[in-house]
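Example: Anthranilate synthase component I family protein.
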Amino acid sequence: MPDPRPEPAAIRVTTRREVLPSYPTLPVHQALAHRFGKEQVYLLESAAGPDRDRKYQFVGFGELLSLSVTDSTVSVDGEPSLREALLRRIAPLLDATDGELRLRARRDLWRVLRELHALFDAEGSPNRFRFGFLGYFGYDTVRYIEDLPYVIDERPPLPDVHLVLHQGCVVIDLDSGEGELLLHESDHWRAFDPAEVTALLARAEAEHPVPPAGPVPASAASDDTDPDAYRRDVERALKHIAVGDIYQVQLGHELTIRSSVDPIDVYQRMRTHNASPYMYLAHVRGQTVLGASPELFVRVEDRTVTMRPIAGTVPRDGDDEAAGARLLADEKEIAEHIMLVDLCRNDIGRICRADTLEVPDELIVERYSHVLHLVSTVVGEAEPDRDTYDIIAALFPAGTMTGTPKIRAMEIIEQIERSRRGLYAGAIGVIDVGGYTNLALCIRTLFHEDGMYRTRASAGVVADSVPEREWTETLAKMSAAYWAVTGKGLL
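Written out as structure tokens, the predicted fold is:
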């Protein structure tokens, strides 16, 4: 029988827009953090990389509502009226057990996210970020899509999924050089004074200049594995490949660093040493997330779905042309890249019209701050009945972080790796209620809490992999994050 209860009314939101100069984003972040509290502010910026990946900078502030899901347990925080309204909408999807709210079925996660989306009657956009959420999708989001075994008993300290609505956002358009302040207003929360906020932003660079990074304090590091253990892990994976179980698998490990260095200093050093197209400084449940990711997970603009898989890397040694030629001549790197592009195309094909699938760029050598990457672009137009959450679920997690076939590769990762990935290999970015979505692949990332930094990297194992080389590759990938904390290299 149909549910006789009426659909809850959506909360009406209007957005005030103020034109701004193109302010530098880190002083803006610091000024807003000083005013509202660092946990209330996030920064997403592009510091380097291809122009197609460098469109906007975002500094969001003033949390209004957050939804977290951890191992099927749902938590909602924020403005009381918003919290109550969301809980009413999602109540049919939850059970109350021992004082906790839990999803009745894991796949109901996506229905819960749609209810959060539908809670607001606001002017969104299909092609830029206007009103919506900062979203975090940890690696274990896949467990709300596929049935996978739990072998690693540890549970990560971060939620599997975390979406946050902020009251204000500073947006810098990198193409036009223009800035904009978005202030969202509703009867359900107290409005910010636009004059106060614009005055604060105008003073940001003078009052919160980016200081030179101070001396790096002493640190101590430990790893959840070692070279010999990792070699055995790769050999196990090679046996799976030899019998045709998989073609490729990404195996990684986690490094923990104890240090008193301030996360802002670490982020500044990341910006300087490893400038990337997807950089982020944000807070999730008491942890600071600092990232310099080179790779897009997915972008949705005007219903066009784009993925840009990266597989294949060489250092920039002063002669980019020669280094790029070596990369394009590396049969292992080329074969691995093509395999992952095919996987990416298959994933996009699940939610896009078949006649719109294209690979406009394949095996392109792109320049980043310290390396050259092999990159391809895969695009398609989403089917009319598919929404943002259909798209994320169809593509998640990125094949460049699992291997192929994807599900079997993830089963093997669970059997071999020693600690849960958490947000690593997941995605972070913005989701607009109008359909625009821009999520970065969460790699080259640090997680900070109580004087401890964690970072992680993996390497792709294929039939002709040499275990020692794969170990070295993981260290090379972690090196920039490690240097940002310690001032030392790993290689």
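The chain has a mean pLDDT of 93.
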